[in-house]
Automatic annotation (TrEMBL):
PROSITE patterns: DEHYDRATASE_SER_THR
SUPFAM superfamilies: P-loop containing nucleoside triphosphate hydrolases, Tryptophan synthase beta subunit-like PLP-dependent enzymes
N6-(pyridoxal phosphate)lysine: residues carrying this PTM: K345
Keywords, comma-separated and alphabetical: Amino-acid biosynthesis, Pyridoxal phosphate
The protein's name: Threonine synthase-like 1
Organism: Balearica regulorum gibbericeps (East African grey crowned-crane)
Family indicated by similarity: Belongs to the threonine synthase family.
């Protein structure tokens, strides 16, 4: 697979500096650990003569924190208010503001910054410095900007206790809260690293967090990825072939056939850090969580913000992006269908194409391969078709789906979402064949090498085997919990259960990851349909495909027998024993089954429980909920509802993932609602559903897609590896050559 190295100049600089520093320490006389720590920070974390620049709203504690950081590093501390502005103006800041007024004050403040220079110092900015672009550009040239992110409510309480009722830039008629919110856009523009600061956090703790954040910024080489099938001894021998976030996004599947996971695990948030996000918007939560999971050497915070804003800014029909709706009793629905293609896949696939375009080198074309059991196809086609025109010229996508294994509307949608760089190919087989075929193509080095040499084209994956697909899913599970806290349903720290219709194990794995990162999820309930291999495995520890055939159901997105992302979870509970994971999956491939050791099953079952729902049970649940509430569940959510009813103990709230909009499964929904005559035309079916004035309304994006002409045009391929590879080669020739 194509390997990217030239897109990490910041990493290479950091690694070289760190190596030199370690050599100096080894040659010096022995010193205590504390002295080594202090020496490392004073000479390395400031990157030579650069500064640590503390930025944040008034009342964030920049001055106090700056003094503590300076003491720890034994370096100069400069407060812009006291040491620069008042010295320059020969008057207090308040006197200057009264003298010149708001607008002129910002200009005068900026001019003072432009004349200021320092090195090797800790600098505390004023709350309004970031509003002067030229001044901040000047400061940023020689420093790491650390954003002290304090919730607005906490800032207002602090300012009230300080008897401050007005700040710079606050005009008559504008509230303090409004001006604080307005300023956030300027803070977000300039920072390199963010430090979350809850309302009651001590300055000493914030200072330690600043040092940790700067250390992380410096140590990008520590955030590496490994394969779920790599041995520990092999890892120590592969230091020169480290994989970083940019690599795993580009490569998708590890060379040994395993899946990439972060070597040091996922970041942990404190309870206070999570609580600081309770008032945040969905986009703000996504930014904070993903910044911790993606090193700025791979995607700087400002670029990540642009990607998140593009993904969620206008493409979702609900301003809350992933709203939580009360269903009944202690059950809540996490609505994940407000994106352009009406399923939870949009959360990742509106974002991943832009991440991918940012990470790959400009010197090579890329063809993204996708296998889908239903919802992924249209989501990935829509996402990659929204790239900038220059990116569409070098990035294309092929979606393979089971020709007769998806709903009619899903099929029409996948075909209707085709664009100049995005195509759908129906395969005369099931999803498991499509997914296995793609894995085999990725691990066929002769074939991938041929495509690179002959056509200058590398392959990449956008299925949930790609690590970048999982990260946005962690966000919505965390956000759902925070929403329940914000709504007053629970207090932070109270547990919830989650119930998720599960096929490929990616969505439920993301919930498990959210739990690991500090969200108080008690149990993850895996909801299966008649293809209940996962339910059997969670109950018994035996993963057995022998004699099983895929059963077409009303919930096709979970009609899966080989759950790819389960491998990541097994690697986690096996303490990163790649040899064991390799053994299990070799046995599954060769013998059709494997059995988990009892000690590992004992680790799994406290986190996971599982149940199944029949087709008739699914339809009955849809009818029952509509009859009592007027709300229509889709067929996958109905599966989860039935399993949740059966398995929850009602001692805590349960969040049911509503993974798709019912409009995608109109024939099954109409049958569930006991409507006798069903027109076979998908558009007519949606109009019929709309006539019932359901909640939520029929999905806008589906209606628009189905209205387009030419939806019947797509290629169909036999279930043959050589045929699939031939299709890939033909499409490369047509698009890139």
């Amino acid at each position: 697979m194509f390997h990217v190295v030239q897109y990490r100049p910041l990493r290479l600089i950091m690694q070289t500096s760190l190596s030199s520093m370690c050599l100096k320490l080894m040659l010096s006389r022995p010193v205590a650990f504390a002295q080594i720590w202090k020496s490392w920070f004073s000479s390395h974390s400031l990157i030579g003569n650069k500064n640590i620049i503390l930025m944040g709203p008034p009342g964030a504690g920049k001055t106090t924190v700056g003094r503590i950081v300076g003491q720890k590093l034994d370096c100069p501390v400069i407060d812009i208010d006291d040491d620069v502005l008042e010295t320059t103006w020969n008057m207090s800041v308040s006197e200057k503001l009264q003298d010149v007024g708001n607008e002129q004050f910002l200009e005068e403040e900026g001019k003072a910054l432009l004349k200021f220079s320092a090195s090797g110092s800790v600098i505390s900015l004023t709350g309004s410095n970031p509003m002067h672009s030229a001044g901040m550009q000047h400061m940023k040239k020689n420093g790491i900007v650390v954003y002290l992110d304090v919730p607005t409510t906490a800032i207002m309480n602090r300012l009230k206790s300080m008897k401050v009722d007005r700040i710079v830039g606050q005009s008559p008629g504008i509230s303090l809260k409004d001006i604080l919110q307005f300023r956030k856009q300027f803070y977000k523009r300039w920072y390199d690293v963010r430090v979350l600061c809850g309302g009651d956090i001590a300055a000493e703790v914030v200072a330690e967090k600043v040092l940790d954040a700067v250390k992380r910024y410096q140590n990008s080489e520590l955030e590496t990825f490994i394969s779920t099938r790599s041995s520990r001894s092999g890892r120590s021998m592969e230091k020169d072939s480290r994989k970083y976030f940019s690599d795993v996004v580009t490569e998708g599947l590890a060379p040994d056939g395993g899946l990439f996971v972060p070597e040091r695990g996922l970041p942990k948030f404190t309870a206070g850090e999570w609580q600081s996000l309770i008032e945040a918007t969905y986009i703000e939560r996504a930014q904070v969580i993903l910044e911790r999971c993606i090193h700025p050497a791979d995607i700087p915070a400002s670029n990540l913000a642009e990607i998140i804003g593009t993904a969620y800014g206008e493409n979702f029909s609900c301003s809350k992006i992933a709203p939580v709706r009360h269903l009944a009793g202690n059950q809540f629905l996490l609505e994940l269908f407000h994106g352009p293609t009406a399923s939870f896949k949009d959360f990742a696939l509106q974002m991943v194409p832009h991440i991918f375009a940012y990470c790959i080198p400009r010197s090579c074309n890329y063809l993204v391969l996708v296998a889908t059991s239903g919802d992924t196809g249209s989501a990935v086609l829509d996402g990659f078709s929204r790239l900038h025109d220059t990116d569409k010229q070098r990035i294309a996508v092929i979606n393979f789906f089971p020709e007769d294994g998806v709903s009619p509307i899903q099929k029409s949608q996948m075909i209707g979402c085709q664009k100049e760089n995005a195509w759908s190919v129906g395969v005369k087989s099931d999803f498991d064949f499509c997914q296995t075929a793609i894995k085999q193509i990725f691990t066929n080095s002769d074939y991938t090498g041929f495509l690179t040499v002959e056509y200058g084209t590398a392959l990449a994956a956008a299925n949930s085997i790609n690590w970048a697909r999982l990260l946005p899913q962690i966000v919505y599970h965390a956000s759902a919990y925070l929403d329940l806290v914000h709504q007053g349903v629970i207090s932070f720290g109270s547990p919830v259960d989650v119930c998720i219709p599960t096929g490929n194990f990616g969505n439920i794995l993301a919930a498990l990851y959210a739990k690991m990162m500090g969200i108080p999820i008690r149990k993850c309930i895996c909801a299966s349909n008649e293809n209940n291999v996962l339910t059997d495995f969670i109950r018994t520890g035996v993963y057995d495909l022998r004699g099983r055939k895929l059963i077409p159901t009303f919930s096709p997105a979970v009609d899966i027998l080989k759950s790819s992302n389960l491998e990541r979870y097994l690697h986690l509970i096996a303490n990163e024993d790649g040899q064991l994971v390799t053994q299990l999956y070799n046995q599954l491939e060769n013998q059709g089954h494997f059995q988990l050791r009892k000690d590992l099953l004992d680790k799994l079952q406290p986190d996971l429980v599982a149940g199944l729902c029949s087709g008739e049970g699914c339809l009955a649940a849809i009818h029952s909920i509509y009859s009592t509430t007027g709300y229509i569940l889709d067929t996958h959510t109905a599966v989860a509802k039935v399993v949740a009813d059966r398995l929850q103990d009602r001692t805590c709230p349960i969040i049911i993932s509503s993974t798709a909009h019912y409009s995608k499964f109109a024939p099954a929904i109409l049958r569930a609602l006991r409507i006798a005559e069903i027109n076979q035309n998908p558009l007519s079916q949606l109009h019929l559903l709309s006539s019932y004035s359901p909640l939520p309304p029929v999905h806008w994006g589906l209606l628009e897609t189905l209205k387009k002409k030419g939806n019947e045009d797509h290629q169909v391929c036999a279930a043959d590896m050589s045929m699939l590879m031939s299709h890939i080669e033909t499409l490369i020739q047509n698009h890139f050559m």
